[in-house]
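Notes continue from the previous slide.

Worked example: a multi-chain complex. Inputs as given:
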Amino acid sequence: MSATCARAWLCYHARRTPIIFMNRACSLVSCVHALRLRTLELAVLLLLAPLSMTAADRNPFTGDPKAAKAGEFEFRINCAFCHGLGARGGGRGPDLHAQKRHGSSDTDLFQNISNGIAGTAMPANGTNGQGVGMTDEEIWQIITYLRSIEVKAPSQPIGNAVHGKQLFYGDANCSLCHMVEGKGGRVGPDLTGAGGSRTVEALIKSVRNPSQKLAWGLTEPTKEFAQEYETVTVTMPDGKQIKGVTLNEDNFSLQVMDTNEKIHLLEKDKISSIKKSRESLMPVYDNTLLSDQDLHDIIAYLLSVGSK
Amino acid sequence: MSRANDRLHLHALILILIALNVTARGQVTFERLINAAKEPQNWLTYSGDYAGRRFSPLDQINTPNVHSLVAKWVYQTAATGKFETTPLVVDGILYATGQDDRAFALDARTGRPIWLYQRQLPGDIRPCCGRVNRGLAILGDKVFMATLDAHVIALDAKTGNLIWDTSAVDYKNGYSFTLAPLAVRNFIVVGISGGEYGIRGFIDAYDADTGKRKWRFYTVPGPGEPGHDSWEGESWKIGGAPAWITGVYDPATNQLFWPTGNPSPSNRGEGRAGDNLYSNTLLALDADTGKLNWHFQFTKHDEHDWDATQVPIMIDAGGKHLIAQANRNGFFYVVDRTNGKLLSANAYAKTTWSGGKDAEGRAVANKESSPTPEGRTVCPGALGTTNWMSPSFDSQTGLFYVTAREECDIFSTAPQPYEAGHAYYGSAYFPSDKAEPYWGALRAIDPDSGHVKWEFRHISPSWSGVLSTAGGLLFTGDAEGNFIALDAATGKPVWHFQMGGAVYASPMAFAVDGREYVAIAAGSSLYTFGLP
């Protein structure tokens, strides 16, 4: 393996683009050849660019009920695993009836389905390693389906966002565990984006019954992400207990944030027991703890932040 | 006999010896493949031997010294996607494949590349489940790869130059190859992938010198052939039954034992009434002709995607010639490989899809497990109790080792019309709200009793296969990136290393210059380990 070859190997660009060289043994010739082809390919791409832009920009099925139906089946097969049946939100993926946090235009949706969303569990089309992926046509059918079930955001605000913010950082104690726009606690999820990606109903449910959606049973596509917010109690050999949320875990080690936000790095063969629970550390906020009106005010605050 | 004649004979003998020596050094002959156990330093086929055991006779790394194991070198493919390869090693050179159909040869002592090959793939291939490849076959001076655009190709083992390139079938209709081919006699055997597209499955053999097809066995019988009446109407034409894992070969009877996958669509039986032969079946084929000698169907009229595409292992014990498979449907089968008769079938994980057995002892699906539009919870889940990751059999412990998954899912139907080249599952699946968290285990099964002797629990299901070695060890990986050595007798973990990427591959072992290495693909890297 020569240095030239190493360069040729690096020339090989990202997957899903036409692979135009290295179709034989690596050599100086193949690298030069490849570079020449790349220039050519670039020229061709530039010529075709306006055409392909249109293809990825416009939904050919807009408003077509037949395409929406086909899209519903595609959605069940490819998306429902995370986003839930009927796109109502699953353990991982948000409800897709409402505003989409990562862009709501047809082009945004097409891009997000095709390429995934960096920094989230949303994988690129065909890369979750389980399904076969979709054709462009099938992606447009799914977008047509999502449009057919879309619900416009209520024009009337659900509550008083200013009062909601006071509650969030004050009497309701939300900020002890949750952060919004960089301010607040760390034991629970950051809620800056929650109002933009979850429906009002989902937000109400997660306050009234926090354990319901505690993510368990994650599968490989989301496995790269830490198993956050799983409640865990670790007992040490001296009897001392650590209660908190799992940041990550493998067969031999465990990373826990306790309720005081201290991170514990633990080796499993040096602890006495690990007890996991499907009960969230978050208390159940029923009507006696938080009135409907106060809850609506807090959600109004989250919606106002999420829509920014 | 005259003296002159004697001398002539002597010269001839010397020439033959020299020729043999040269052959032994440079060429991988069929005889070497049959006698793989005689050269434990090499790993000559996907499963390490024709029996499918994934067992290394090397014992330099063993239970007393395994705690000192260290990483020796790492090779990075610089590609994304699952890296599923099992390398081959021949006389100090390691040959493997990577994502997007690349192949490479490395100095097995250092990991330094000798050549690289990158397949020029069409933009519109749509293989199920990732742009993966599981490895090469080697025969003579060539290595062989089966590609995602459904070609079988031969590369020069010394340069990586393309020698021949044969299209097996049109990839546009959903066909692809992901498996490592198997070299037998002077030909290369492959099985097709594409059970998600309504293909008609087949197993092919190609002449190793020319790439010319020698025979094809269609895994879905055509009109007039036995088994054709196990399909409703025209459903056989899109009946699936792919054959996407490398089978095994019995030199004593010149038979291939090759397993097949799901009928299409995978989770909707409506429209394909009948047993749907030869889906989810173990086939015994005459290696020279591809003619069917016998078959054993694990799951009849499958509606849960119970692909039988797990490497079966030939076991000879007590004068019996057996073949055993830990099946995706949750049962461990032992079959008499002289006639295809089932000897035993025992569950080795939680199963709810079957409530009873037929007269032959085969697990039969119950009505309550049949998927509906609303969905029904069934165990094992959609990915099965195990999948394509290799099991291992260690004749020293007499145990069969397999990576198992404990998961239940909701199976639902999503009726869709067949369209050539488009996904054709007829189904969808979801995690069940009430389901326990998924977990996994490496399980040791006693083939005599069919019972699980011990298990090593994984906190989440693993996609790693298992290697057993004469050093009394098992090697496996996990979804969190650990490579783990265990005591083969007890399942106790004795060493682990965090590789930083999930494992979707099966380990193997080799030796160069008298030093043993264990290798595994993880993330986008190929790791090797040895003694300090």
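Summary box: The two ends of chain A are 53 Å apart (CA to CA). Chain A touches chain B through 49 residues (CB under 8 Å).
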